[in-house]
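Please produce the structure of this protein holding histidyl-adenosine monophosphate.
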Amino acid sequence: MPIEPPRGTNDHGPDAMARRRAVEGILRETAQRFGFREIGTPTLESLELFTAKSGPGIVKELYAFKDKGGRDVALRPEFTASIVRFYLSELRNLPKPIKVYSVGNVFRYEEPQKGRYREFTQFNAEIIGAPALPGDAEVIALALECLRAVGIKEVQVRIGHIGLLRSYLRLAPEDQGKVLHWLDKRNFTALREELRRLELQDLEDPLRRFVELKGGVEIFTKAAEALPGVRPQGFEYLRSLAARLRDYGVENVTFDLGVVRGLDYYTGMVFEVDSPNLGAEKQVMGGGAYNLAETLGGDPVPQTGFAFGLDRILMAADAEGVKLPTSRLDCFVIPIGEPAQSRGIEVLRDLRRAGVSADIDLAARGPSKNLDYANALRARYAVLIGEAELNKRLVSVKDLDSGKQEEIPLEALIERARGQRPRA
Ligand code: HAM
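Below is the modeled complex.
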């Protein structure tokens, strides 16, 4: 029996990996353009980092275990908690606001299905120490620019404010967390049970009406009617945010008061992006403003950010037929006959040193088998060197896309191959 990879994990072949790297590269480049700088944190963290606040959703989903020294550790289920830990120990000394991004694998013990894995990749961005409004607008603008840069157009961006519900539900944090959890899951039976336990059953209908409100600024009046006494500052904040986003060129924002988010640390603006082309797991991004620094023992500081699921971005890009830039092998060198062998290696070396990607026959195959192999690798040029080419100090270059073949000096091939990069 072949050994299977663990449930919910994925292998990525060369083509799939090239596509992943292409998207990752676009996201990195976009974040850099927005002034974010990359940081790295460990894949393995102390368990307590996540049990401090991440919420019932995530705690159950952790890959947690004791290491050989008996310490409780967990594979990171996300980046935010690690980044705030790093902020409190070190990054806080950097000039504020601190704008950082990270890319890497995260682990959640979930029930796997299409688009939902136990190991997946996140692209995460955070701003720590910028006032709420400009910080939130900047992270939303970055998230939308990332999607635009990848070429994904069919997305639904929904912006809400969890502070509205939090300030309305004046409950002990644990009770509030449970009510919000069932609202997030839209599990109204469990919500009813919870509210009954808290002797707040009258709140069920208003809360249900509130989380179903979606649209433009007009929903704020309805929201205030649904939950009389809800603090109006949240609505004013969302209006100002929409105005600031217009300056970024983001028009027609959709507000959705039902964005509750699965993680417990959010306190203010929350937002999500869906790709309607994906099935049940259509959320490609989630984020918002939060207060983890205080939970982890630090001073209050505004924090806001988001994470994309890379796997889901790729699925959304596929569904829309987005063409992603991928690099191809430039040259496959085919020396023909014994005397051409060492010239073949010389040509290979010169191509590689000139920055041209090049490969050579390692299997002692004949020219026609080598051409098949070069085609299978999707090389751009086959570089044939036989006796005639040796004598003339030229190479025969076959363009594998057009089939055209010509004898040219090596320098001309280098120039041609270099001139064609980057390409789709
Ligand atoms: P999250 O919504 O839990 O937020 O995850 C962010 C994104 O990761 C989701 O929108 C989704 O695309 C992807 N994702 C989540 N679970 C899975 C899974 N099992 N398989 C594949 N993709 C998945 C966070 O993680 C927050 N830390 C985001 C954040 C940063 N908030 C503030 N700063």
